[in-house]
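Quick question, first post here. What does this chain look like in 3D?
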Amino acid sequence: MACPKCETEIVVPSPIQASTAGTKAIKKGPPPATDKQKAYATQLGIEYPDDIDIRAMSQLIDEAQLRQEDERYERLDELQKKESDVREQLRAEILSECDEEDARLSVATKEQMLDELDERDIGAILITLDYGELTDLEDLSGVKLAISNTDNLEADDVKAVLTWLGMAMLRR
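> Answer (accepted):
Ran it through. Tokens below.
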């Protein structure tokens, strides 16, 4: 190429020649892992090379944390299953005890239940309904309820208890 003023030939190196001629290109990569990362990785039980970079260390830490979280959820699932098994076993024991103590309860009519409670001198109000009529527990309108009580409760006592219950429910 010629100089536009003096027309002397000038050799202009190509970009590749220029980069290799004087200064070598510096290959840049991610910086090395921080001391804080290395300490945390060691705490997590991660083995890593001394010259690990910050990105690779972050990835190792993320993977270790995910493994720990998965293991934690597995342990929680096992504990919940054990809890459920214990509850079922306890429920079965309670039901068998109830059945052994009073096998008549599972087949008793409402009159028999009220008579037994009355004999034990326990005042009781029994509200029964036809389960087939029940469609929504929030709205009992249209469902026929039957209210029975033990003989040791007077009609005014039953009304007072039911009124109090209704008022208590409204306050909720």
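The chain has a mean pLDDT of 82.
DSSP finds five helices and two strands in the chain.
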